[in-house]
């Protein structure tokens, strides 16, 4: 559990101009493939919430699923997926959201969270915060009490953290990268 922000940064691969020119894609597959760093990242993300009574971890498709399953296991919580539209088989609620490179819609099962349940939201990275804001709104529509939102990576210049904090959501991240 001794990894620093520099260690996390070193474990993340940066791909210039992916998926569009001008984007520096922060690829966490290299972090996930490193047993010690992956474990440490999960431990560090859940650490402040071990005694917060988290009922469920909500993960945003797709990289949020990988982290979310591990976080839920550590917290002895359930896991619920927030998916791109058309993927969930049962009755859903849906929201449109903007992201750093495009527009999309996401869905949750209507019965995924019960009113008053305490939920920790997770994804690999927060940029503009559009994706996470959509997820917060979906969760709140179901009556969730959002404990916090946690991400491995923050791109602080894009303002996502402030956007979530303005919604009253605590934000935890492990490493920051300047710019896009
Ligand atoms: P945003 O809605 O702008 O906060 O964008 C966050 C979502 O887009 C997350 O699901 C990220 O995985 C993805 N994303 C945005 N920017 C990047 C980036 N520079 N590198 C990798 N993933 C990104």
Describe the structure.
The structure is a single chain. The chain has helices at 5-11, 29-32, 35-46, 63-75, 130-141, 160-166; strands at residues 13-16, 24-27, 56-60, 78-84, 92-99, 102-109, 118-126, 145-154, 171-176. It is α/β, with parallel strands linked by helices and 180 residues long. It is built from 6 helices and 9 strands; from the N terminus they run αββααβαββββαβαβ. The protein has one domain: 3-Layer(aba) Sandwich (Rossmann fold). The longest helix has 13 residues, at 63-75. The strands form 2 sheets. The protein has a 7-stranded mixed sheet with strand order 5-6-4-3-7-8-9, sandwiched between helices. Strands 1-2 form a two-stranded antiparallel sheet. The protein is globular. The site of adenosine monophosphate (AMP) has 20 residues, from strand 2, strand 7 and helix 5.
Find the structural class using helix and strand composition: alpha/beta
Q: Walk across the major sheet and give the strand order.
A: 5-6-4-3-7-8-9
Number of domains as seen in the coordinates: 1
The Cα radius of gyration reads 15 Å
Low-pLDDT parts are: none
Number of helices: 6
Please give the number of β-strands.
9
Ligands bound, unique: adenosine monophosphate
Mean pLDDT: 96
Sketch the topology as an H/E string, one letter per element: HEEHHEHEEEEHEHE
Which CATH class is shown? Alpha Beta
CATH topology type:
Rossmann fold
> Mind describing the biggest β-sheet?
7 strands, mixed
Report the β-strand fraction as a percent range. Answer: 25-35%
CA(first)-CA(last) distance: 28 Å
Q: In the CATH hierarchy, what is the architecture at level 2? A: 3-Layer(aba) Sandwich
Shape: globular
Share of helix, binned: 25-40%
């Amino acid at each position: 559990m001794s990894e620093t922000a520099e260690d996390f940064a070193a474990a993340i691969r940066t791909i210039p101009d992916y998926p569009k020119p001008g984007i520096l894609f922060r690829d966490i597959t290299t972090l996930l493939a490193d047993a010690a760093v992956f474990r440490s990242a999960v431990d560090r993300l859940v650490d402040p919430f071990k005694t917060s009574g988290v009922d469920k971890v909500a993960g945003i498709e797709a990289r949020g699923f990988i982290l979310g399953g591990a976080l839920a296991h550590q917290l002895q919580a359930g896991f619920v997926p927030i998916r791109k539209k058309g993927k969930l088989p049962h009755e859903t609620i849906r929201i449109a959201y903007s992201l750093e490179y495009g527009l999309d819609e996401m869905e949750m099962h209507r019965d995924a969270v019960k009113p008053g349940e305490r939920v920790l939201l997770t994804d690999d990275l927060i940029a503009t915060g559009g994706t996470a804001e959509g997820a917060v709104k979906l969760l709140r529509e179901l009556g969730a009490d959002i404990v916090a939102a946690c991400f491995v990576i923050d791109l602080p210049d894009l303002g996502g953290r402030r956007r979530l904090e303005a919604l009253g959501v605590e934000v935890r991240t492990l490493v920051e990268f300047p710019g896009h």
